[in-house]
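Protocol step 4 of 6: structure prediction from sequence.
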Amino acid sequence: MLLPGLVSGFVAPSVSAPPVIVHAGGEEVAIIAIIMGTLSGVFYPLIRAWARQLEGRGAASLPLAQIEDRLDRIERGVEAIALEVERVSEGQRFVTKLLAEKASSQLPPARP
């Protein structure tokens, strides 16, 4: 096995490893957690209030009379669609009945 500094008999000048920095870790994490908690506690309600204000600006609520008129039009449209669906289904039943009668009249009689 060749060492990193050895290449077919050549020895490179000694290279020192970069210095290793040891962090305590606990204090820094605690400070960051306190700062983030404080910022979250302050800015969350402000951002939430701002978002509610933006939501309120969007669409003005319609008067009750307009909402009732709109619901009435939707109801009439749904009823018209229901009538058309019923008409189409009756036509489908009629065509199916005709095809079934035509097919049974063309079949040869069954043998016992």
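Step 5 (inspection) to follow. The longest strand covers residues 6-7.
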